Amino acid sequence: MTGSRLLGSGSALPERLVTNAELSERIDTSDEWIVERTGIRQRYIAGEDETTASLATKAARAALKDAGVTAGEVDLIVLATATPDNTFPATATKVQDALGCNGCVAFDVAAVCSGFLYALATADSLLTTGMGKCALVIGAETFSRILDWEDRTTCVLFGDGAGAIVLGAPDLAKPAREGGPGVLASKLHADGAHHDLLYVDGGPSSTQTVGHLRMKGREVFRHAVANLSSVLGEVLDDAQIKAEAIDWVVPHQANRRILDATAKKLGIPPEKVIVTVDQHANTSAASVPLALDTARRDGRIVPGNLVMFEAMGGGFTWGASLMRV
Description:
The protein is of the alpha/beta class.
């Protein structure tokens, strides 16, 4: 099976930038404390007129422009988010309407920080089986809306934003596994036994409230390093590629310590890891496409590069994908 090709990328951030110093004026924390434990220096927080859908739409428009694709050519929209505008309908349908491509397939994927990896694998599967020729894959979040701003151990970790990519149908003349562009392999996992380590304490059928994010950071860190190292190995084995052949790793931007520990465990040099957690904090499903777009725009990731994406989030869910861009 050949893999879908990356045609373009785009991203969007809220207007308001919030530094660690500003947070320290509101809660009992400091820039030094946050940077030492997470690597985060700032984040962007959505304003009243900014929503998951509006950020997703802005990122999608940027990705379409970068790809040279019109909205009318989009056959599929898969939007990963844990913070939808409404319980239903899917936020993807709001993006669809804003773009003017009504009639194509559009739905949301809920896998928290792994959401973009789940959305990417889903869109790739649909394109490779002929259900369309062009897909928008989006990760978008307004996590600031579910944070407990009295809990200094979690509220400093997250930010808002959106990232999007345009995927094209596989190039049958030059498949990814024969040196062409496209997705070479994807692996996804979940383990609901660890629900209570990272979750939101609300929901329509349980409390009839939105709730707040709750996390046991030390336990999450331990599982993240083990799970991510394992799934990255699975993808490399499936693609029959060695770790040293990877040009760039674009990880979920949760915590600088997790990024460093995972890379070290796999023997990947830190200079091959795209790091944006210092700029954006943890934007959940948006973090991987945001980091990808950042690295493409600044010239680090170029056509022909082998790029590994990886993420782990609440559920637990985790996954990885390898793509030649």
